[in-house]
Amino acid sequence: MTVEGGLHFARRFAWLGLVGSGVLWVCFVAEIFLMVRANDFIVDRQIITADHLAFYTGARLTRFGPEDKLYDYHYVGNYQNKLFYKDPDDPKRDVWTMLEAFRNPPFYAMLYWPTCGWPYFYSAITWFAISIGLTILGTWWLSDRRFVWGLLWVLSFFPTFAALDYGQNTPLSFAIFAAVYVLLKKRMPFAAGLAAGLLLFKPQLLLGLGVWALLDIRRKWPCVLGVLVTGGVLVAISITVLPTATEGFRKSFVSNTEFDSFEQHKMHNPLAFARLLLPREKIAEALAADDPEQKKWIETWVRRVHNGFAIACSLAALVAFIWLWRHRGGDLHVMFGGVVFFTLFAGPHALIYEWMLLAITGLLWAREWRDRPNTWFALYAAVWGVLYFSTHLNGEILSVIPVTIQWSVPVFGVVGWYAVHLLTKPGTEPVSP
Fold first, then answer.
1. pLDDT digits (tens, 9 = 90+) for 81-107
2. What's the CA gap between 139 and 404, in Å, rounded?
3. pLDDT per residue over 142-158, tens digit each?
4. How far apart are CA 154 and CA 147, in angstroms?
5. Continuous segment of H or E residues that includes residue 380
6. Which of 43, 86, 175, 246 could form a Cys-Cys staple with 119, CB 3.0–4.6 A?
7. Region label for 119, one of left (φ > 0), alpha (ψ between -120 and 50) or beta (otherwise)
8. Is the pTM above the cut of 0.90?
């Protein structure tokens, strides 16, 4: 059997991926039910979609106070512990003993004000339902045909499951990106910019859109203006309604942008790849265990290697993106898919749940399958598969040895390069940007 024949055969059974993901979703729902029943349905003993706790806490502190403690993470950790059942004999058996830090701008906390007065369990369930709705809405906006089939594949994508399981806000980003795409498709660039400005609750998500606007500033300047208007409104709201929290955000901004306060094997970008392959603390300990000054010097240089590698990969991605723009700049679905891919790969912060946004690229670039369906299937399958196992595999490896490879990153690099090659290959009619 030829490679082409093998890929064609595999495509016929791709639906088995949906079945496997369906099993994962059934297990997730069953786990929540069994956990709730094991805790006698008492709401202060339930902790689900744990990352939602960061937004819930941020909303409570900004609505009920103390506002000045929003970015005081020692205080926040103790505050969150008191939101749930506390064991009277052993604090280690409390329902919650960790920290979910709120690192977004203060205006974002206001989005959760309507549910922050409820018990955490009810707020988490409500926002889980809202996130499902946003995922459906975003997929609807992005689909030109076969909406149900597209939605099933979006829900089968492991980062989508992770975003919903964790209680993260990526479905909101997904819906905002979809809204920007629809408004650009309707030739409403200023409105698209207004919508894109809503992504300022995670400013790094504007990276690709910003580069695209600079490349095509003659036609994208209304988008830039829209982002500035929305940004100005959000800043004004923060300063006016939450002045103390806004000052706290300003002071904590630099430390929060180091993006190293979480498990690196859950992040999928070149920066995490370098950190996992060259752990600076372990290297410094091995080379200069008895010399604190030497250890600090080594750690500084290893950190520079990390950053240099990440910058080099980002520049390579930028070159590929510019090449795509020069050849297909007039094709909105191609460029918008490229914007999302570039944002995730070249940005400083792309945890597993944020790669849910790559489903946007998948939905839009699927329209290019007609020329090379088997090749495109192989590219999609590689990304779909590696994101299923890479995070958990590396977690297991790190429990044994301190070094590992984030396999998703080289896969993204190869897939991204070859996808641009296919999209700009000879025979593809270039469209003037």
1. 888 877 777 667 777 788 899 999 999
2. 35
3. 998 889 999 999 999 99
4. 10
5. helix 373-398
6. 43
7. beta
8. yes
